[in-house]
C-alpha cells in the first residue's frame, strides 16, 4: 500500500486530494491546526488514516509527522499555507512581521518537512508535491507578500528537483478554487470551481508520475 503525507488536510484542496488518494487505496498521514476539523475529515476519508493535528511551523509537530510516516513514504504533499496579512495589503503597507510569519509557514516549514522526510522518500523513490500559486509568477496588486512566499517555494522545488533526481518533485498551481482562503483574500470564491476539480487533476499528475517540474491543474485537466 502506498503512503502519502498531506499537510493542511482538514479543508479545501488538502481535504479534496486526501479524499482522492484514500479512495484510490492510499494510506494517509494528514495534519491540520484544527484538531476537531482534522478528525472529522479523517473519518470521512475512510481507509487507513493517521491524523496528527498541529502547526507545520512547530519542529515538534514535524517530528511527530515524520514518526507517523514511518520508514517509507511514497508522497509528501506540502499543502498547508497562509495568506499572511488580510485584507491583502500593497507592498508599501505590508507589515514585515506578518510577511516573516507567512514565509515561515509557506516556505521554511515545507523545506523542513522535506529535510525530515527525505530518507523515507528516497527509500521508495517517492515524490514531493508542493502547492504553489499563479501569484508566484504574476504581478497581481496586493498579492506581493503572499506571492513572494510561493515564488520562494517554487525555486526551492526547482533546485530540489535537480538535487534529488531519483525523486519526482512537482510544484503545482491549482488555480482559483472555492475555498475559505480565496474568500479571505477578498475574491469571489463562489464563482470559482470546487477544490475537487484541482484535486482530480493533481491525482492524475501523481498517478502518471510525470517528470519533475511546474504544473498547472487546468493544464493537467485539459490533458485527459
UniProtKB/TrEMBL annotation:
Pfam family, one: adh_short
Keywords: Oxidoreductase
Database matches in SUPFAM superfamilies: NAD(P)-binding Rossmann-fold domains
Keyword Oxidoreductase: yes
Transmembrane segments: none
InterPro entries the record matches: NAD(P)-bd_dom_sf (IPR036291), Sc_DH/Rdtase_CS (IPR020904), SDR_fam (IPR002347)
Similarity comment: Belongs to the short-chain dehydrogenases/reductases (SDR) family.
Protein name as it appears in the record: NAD(P)-dependent dehydrogenase (Short-subunit alcohol dehydrogenase family)
Amino acid at each position: 500500500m502506498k503512503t502519502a503525507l498531506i499537510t493542511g488536510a482538514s479543508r479545501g484542496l488538502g481535504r479534496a486530494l486526501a479524499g482522492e488518494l484514500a479512495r484510490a487505496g492510499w494510506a494517509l498521514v494528514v495534519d491540520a491546526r484544527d484538531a476537531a476539523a482534522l478528525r472529522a475529515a479523517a473519518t470521512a476519508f475512510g481507509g487507513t488514516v493517521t491524523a496528527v493535528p498541529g502547526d507545520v511551523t512547530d519542529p515538534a509537530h514535524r517530528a511527530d509527522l515524520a514518526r507517523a510516516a514511518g520508514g517509507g513514504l511514497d508522497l509528501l504533499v506540502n499543502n498547508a499555507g497562509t495568506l499572511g496579512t488580510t485584507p491583502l495589503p500593497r507592498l508599501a503597507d505590508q507589515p514585515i512581521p506578518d510577511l516573516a510569519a507567512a514565509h515561515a509557514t509557506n516556505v521554511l516549514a515545507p523545506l523542513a518537512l522535506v529535510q525530515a522526510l527525505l530518507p523515507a522518500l528516497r527509500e521508495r523513490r517517492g515524490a514531493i508535491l508542493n502547492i504553489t500559486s499563479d501569484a508566484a509568477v504574476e504581478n497581481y496588486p496586493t498579492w506581493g507578500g503572499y506571492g513572494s512566499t510561493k515564488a520562494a517555494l517554487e525555486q526551492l522545488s526547482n533546485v530540489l528537483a535537480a538535487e534529488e533526481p531519483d525523486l519526482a518533485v512537482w510544484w503545482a498551481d491549482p488555480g482559483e478554487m472555492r475555498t475559505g482562503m480565496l474568500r479571505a483574500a477578498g475574491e469571489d470564491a463562489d464563482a470559482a470551481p470546487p477544490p475537487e476539480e484541482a484535486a482530480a487533476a493533481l491525482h492524475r499528475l501523481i498517478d502518471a508520475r510525470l517528470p519533475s517540474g511546474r504544473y498547472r491543474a487546468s493544464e493537467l485537466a485539459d490533458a485527459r
